[in-house]
Amino acid sequence: MQAAAEQLQAYFEGRRRRFEIPVDLSGETAFQERALRACAEDPYGETVSYGELARRCGQPGAARAVGQVMATNRLPLVVPCHRIIAARGGLGGYGYGVALKGALLAMERQQVGWAAVAGQGADSAMGWAGVDVTFRR
Q1: Does residue 50 form part of some domain?
Q2: Would you give per-residue pLDDT tens digits along the chain (137 residues)?
Q3: Is 60 among the domain residues?
Q4: Which of 31, 33, 34, 111 has an alpha carbon 20 to 30 Å from 55's alpha carbon atom?
Q5: Residue 108, C-beta contacts closer than 8 angstroms, at least 6 positions apart
Q6: Where in the sequence is the domain holding 48, given as residue range(s)?
Q7: In a domain, 85, yes or no
Q8: What's 95's DSSP letter?
Q9: Residue 91, domain CATH
């Protein structure tokens, strides 16, 4: 538990981008395990759609099923389901609230050097962390 606490603290301080914590996926279906493993591979500060994650799991068209897997994710920072978003760029859902999902994404993007520019450019993230923000590299 101490290692997990230290890694979480380092994540929130911007010093850690991946967790090295054993994750027990027993009890998950084969699809759930594939979805969680694929989600864990998503790079820090980047997002992928539910549909793209479904394709990575070998189940194109299973975006809603991926959403259900993410909704039941027991380790939401270690398996970073906050990085999975709707196809059109909206945040989608998050078990701990969409405002927190947006705040986590904004924090990660700030750490990797994205500039937040209100109302300009591509990758608009309307409503992330309660504000209208666009991210550009």
Answers
A1: yes
A2: 898 899 999 999 889 999 988 888 889 999 999 999 999 999 999 999 999 999 999 999 999 999 999 999 999 999 999 999 999 989 999 989 999 999 999 999 988 875 444 333 334 443 334 333 333 33
A3: yes
A4: 111
A5: 44, 45, 83
A6: 2-97
A7: yes
A8: T
A9: 1.10.10.10
Which positions are catalytic? 81
| Residue 103 CB neighbour total at 10 angstroms | 15
Report pTM: 0.80
Residue 132 lies in a domain: no
Q: Strand pairing of 115-117 and 133-136?
A: antiparallel
Number of separate domains in the chain: 1
Residue 82 class from Cβ within 10 Å (0-12 exposed, 13-18 middle, 19+ buried)?
A: buried
